[in-house]
Amino acid sequence: MKNMSNTKNGFTSKLGFVFAAAGSAVGLGNIWRFPYLAAKYGGGIFLLVYILLAVTFGFALMVTEIAIGRKTGKSAVKAFAALDKRFSFIGYIASAVPIIIFPYYCVIGGWVIKYLTVYLTGQGVEAAADGYFDSFISAPISPIVFTCIFIFITAVIVLMGVQKGIEKVSTIMMPVLVLLAIAIAIYSITLDGAWEGFMYYIKPNFADFSIKTVVAAMGQMFYSMSLAMGIMITYGSYMRKEDNIETSVHQIEIFDTAVAFFAGMMIVPAVYAFSGGDKDALNQGAGLMFVTLPKVFETMYGGKIIGAVFFVLVLLAALTSSISLMETIVSIFSDKLKVKRQVICIAVMLISAAVAVPSSLGYGVWSNVQLLGRSILDFFDFISNNIMLPITALLTCIFVGYVIKPKAIEEEVELSGKFRLKKLVRIMIPYVCPVFLVVILISSIIGYV
Ligand code: PFF
Q1: 274 CA distance to ligand 1 centroid (A)?
Q2: Residue 1 has what pLDDT?
Q3: 3-class SS at 398?
Q4: What is the whole-number distance in angstroms between the Cα of residue 77 and the centre of ligand 1?
């Protein structure tokens, strides 16, 4: 994003904007997080709730954030301040989220690098064996080394200001990732016993519905679409006035949801195939993708090469997201401190690496440390996605709904054409979303769901 801010006019085309925003949105959230949540929280019913939330709530919030950014031409903290000084605190809360997410995001990024090296060094068979993943993440040193490599790569890209180049590469790679995911997904459902899993994944079963499904789907939606953390405000601030916000949001959402959908389709049916539909296997949580995919690749013709290509693409998707996370953190501090950007970059890199260590150790030597009944990484994930994101979203909805009023958003969107779903936003932001968010927050806090 630094490069963007250097370019006075921001994005030079609508597609440029869509790809950059999609680069931030599509990442580990889609490929690693979505499938394990879908597996755990009811399969088809989770998918249905997620899609319903994405096309209503997610749509309204993304339009709102991009419009705020474009209207003010500023990133989160300054954007809220520019609209109403009293509410700049919302920008601060939003900006705190990437600071919490970034370190543990890098732990998962490290796992991706590990698996990439596994496939590049021809150890795909070993990786498919039971217990391989557990013995990797429970080791004290190796996962931390991979995490540090991931943070280092991200930091070098941000330091050198070559984000644009990475975004270009990933613009080309992203469609390849989607096609590969579709191919693997189709292969997965042909595995013996996978059909039942496929049905579990796409057919909503209302008996599986619970408030946990909604809480999880909601947190996932914010996370996956990079919402309620100031990111889309910043991207909006670089968007040209003549580009259509509404159609851009549709494109970003469709792309983001499609990647998540196919990632789930690669993994959930395969879990059934390899476990015989054992519920415990569906409940594995954060390790699901890393345990399941090597087994899929092992049975596949050319699986070793496909595995390597797959992890390269996932790494790229993870990097475009981690870059946008780190950029945000660096710009928050560069705005506030009179210190060189390079120094801030290095400080963020070192501090994030230190903060990532407990998240990594939480799966091994510190597995007895439980926070709210969760491992350390899961705790950060829970606090950011299920508590902080709904709070920021709630404050944003109240601010837009009752302080600046939805009209301000509508006018901004209408600068570039007709606003087809204006009514949806007008109802969602002031009325539906706040009520919904309060319910979600209460159940999240009471039940530690
Ligand atoms: N949306 C990203 C994903 O789904 O992986 C995660 C993310 C990236 C969140 C960048 C926040 C962000 F600033």
Answers
A1: 30
A2: 47
A3: helix
A4: 19
Rounded distance between C-alpha atoms, residue 201 and residue 181, angstroms = 16
Residues near ligand 1 (Cβ within 6 A): 24-25, 27-30, 98, 101, 223-224, 226, 229, 231, 321, 324-325, 328
Please check whether residue 2 lies inside any domain of the structure. no
Q: Whose CA is nearest to atom 8 of ligand 1?
A: 321
Average pLDDT over residues 394-417: 97
Query: At which residue do the structure tokens 């049905």 appear?
Result: 199
pLDDT at 278 over 70: yes
Q: How far is ligand 1, taken at its centre, from the CA of residue 277, in Å?
A: 31
Give me the number of domains the chain comprises: 1
pLDDT, averaged across the chain: 93
User: Token match 């932001």: residue?
Assistant: 429
Q: Look at the block and give the residue holding tokens 């706040």.
A: 434
Ligand 1 mutation pick, 30, 61, 75, 101, max ligand atoms within 8 A of CB: 101
Is residue 7, in this structure, part of any structural domain at all? no
Residue 123 is given by DSSP the state: -
User: For tokens 């539906």, what's the residue?
Assistant: 432
Q: Round to whole Å and give the CA distance between 436 and 288.
A: 30
CB atoms within 10 A of CB 219: 25
User: Domain holding 267: CATH number?
Assistant: 1.10.4160.10
Which of 97, 50, 60 has its CA nearest to residue 433? Answer: 60
> How long, in residues, is the chain?
449
pLDDT of residue 9: 45
* Domain with 384 in it: 14-445
Asked whether the predicted pLDDT for residue 311 surpasses 90, the reply is yes
> Is residue 202 in a domain?
yes
Instruction: Kindly give the distance from the C-alpha atom of residue 125 to the centroid of ligand 1, in angstroms, as a whole number.
Output: 31
Residues 6+ apart with CB under 8 A from 300: 184, 187, 306
Tell me which of 62, 221, 223 to substitute to probe ligand 1's pocket, judged by most ligand atoms within 8 Å of the beta carbon: 223
The answer to whether residue 1 sits within a structural domain is no
